[in-house]
């Protein structure tokens, strides 16, 4: 009788199958954790050096040779952080999806480079600014070669988080909008830390948000939209959906740690509050299901 009842009971429609993360041997998972921990360690060490010496330069005179060492590290640390973060993500992606990510990397690198070149030459879409020599060799004598790589390695987890909430063809527009907001949240701490507290780039006009023009935020969001749209157009959803979202969120946090920590240490409470508020908004947006996927309310 129970079998008959079970057969007669109406079945609930099964949700669309979601691609599962690619199985990785235990040794590979440890490599992913070590790579992520390395990014956190470098960010934390850089933040500790900044809080100890950059905010208290008088301490450099207390230790013989400290000033020279700190001067070299001030130049090397941001380059090392960007290079290691990219290497960690590249290793992670290669282990998970092979070479499928390389096309997206090339596209986003060129698109973000074009946006940065426009910004450093004609002042659009971010406003007028220039990079100092602190971030290494520059492409076309304007944009450090590491900068487009950083756009890629923060755009990818931003898109992945939006994709998790808004999958499928119907959700393409929403995930482009949300993914760009997640990416913009990073800049709310990044710009004050790297252009006001330090001088890795310098604005050509005095802005209202810790020295940067508000146009920069609009430029970041528009550039983010272009990068997210490129990922959607390249049909990267298939392999991105297979990536463990927890690792990508932690990776985003590892790269946010340094600028957010620098802003906090320097007392830029507005930048810290704006970043946290933007991330909370992103969290809320990604938690609210689209109207088409909400359960109907019983009469």
Q: What report would you give on this structure?
A:
With 299 residues, the protein is mainly alpha-helical. 66% of the residues lie in helices and 3% in strands. The strands form two sheets. It has a two-stranded antiparallel sheet. β2 and β3 form a beta hairpin. The longest helix has 32 residues, at 66-97.
Point out poorly predicted stretches: 1-17, 295-299
Q: What portion of the residues fall into strands of 2 or more residues?
A: under 5%
The number of distinct β-strands equals 4
How many H/I helices?
10
Main beta-sheet strand count, sense and barrel state = 2 strands, antiparallel
Helix content: 55-70%
Q: Report the end-to-end length measured between terminal Cα atoms.
A: 32 Å
Compute the gyration radius: what is it?
A: 22 Å
Structural class: mainly alpha
> Helix and strand succession?
HHHHEEEHHEHHHH
- Biggest sheet: strand arrangement: 1-4
Q: What does the overall shape look like?
A: globular
pLDDT averaged over residues: 88
What is the fold's blueprint, element by element?
Elements: H1 2-8, H2 26-54, H3 66-97, H4 102-121, E1 129-131, E2 138-139, E3 143-144, H5 146-165, H6 172-197, E4 201-203, H7 215-233, H8 237-240, H9 245-265, H10 269-287
Helix pairs in contact: 2-3, 2-9, 3-5, 4-5, 4-7, 5-6, 5-7, 5-9, 6-7, 6-9, 6-10
């Amino acid at each position: 009788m129970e079998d008959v009842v079970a057969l007669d009971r109406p079945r609930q429609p099964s949700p669309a199958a979601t691609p599962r993360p690619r199985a990785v041997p235990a040794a590979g998972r440890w490599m992913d954790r070590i790579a992520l921990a390395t990014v956190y360690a470098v960010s934390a060490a850089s933040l500790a050096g900044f809080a100890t010496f950059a905010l208290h330069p008088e301490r450099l005179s207390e230790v013989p040779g400290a000033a020279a060492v700190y001067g070299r590290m001030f130049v090397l640390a941001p380059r090392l952080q960007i290079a290691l973060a990219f290497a960690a993500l590249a290793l992670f992606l290669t282990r998970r999806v092979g070479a499928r990510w390389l096309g997206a990397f090339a596209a986003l690198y060129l698109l973000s480079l074009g946006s940065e070149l426009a910004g450093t030459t004609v002042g659009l879409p971010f406003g007028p600014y220039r990079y100092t020599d602190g971030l290494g060799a520059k492409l076309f004598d304007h944009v450090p070669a590491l900068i487009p790589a950083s756009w890629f390695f923060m755009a990818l987890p931003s898109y992945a988080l939006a994709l998790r909430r808004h999958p499928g063809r119907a959700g393409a527009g929403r995930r482009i909008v949300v993914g760009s907001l997640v990416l913009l949240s990073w800049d709310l701490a990044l710009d004050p830390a790297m252009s006001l507290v330090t001088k890795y780039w310098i604005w050509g006009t005095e802005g209202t948000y810790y020295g940067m023009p508000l146009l920069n935020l609009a430029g970041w969001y528009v550039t983010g939209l272009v990068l997210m749209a490129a990922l959607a157009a390249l049909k990267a959803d298939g392999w991105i959906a297979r990536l463990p979202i927890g690792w990508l969120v932690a990776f985003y946090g590892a790269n946010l740690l340094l600028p957010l920590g620098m802003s906090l240490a320097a007392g830029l409470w507005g930048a810290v509050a704006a970043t946290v508020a933007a991330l909370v908004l992103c969290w809320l947006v990604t938690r609210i299901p689209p109207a088409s996927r909400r359960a109907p309310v019983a009469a």
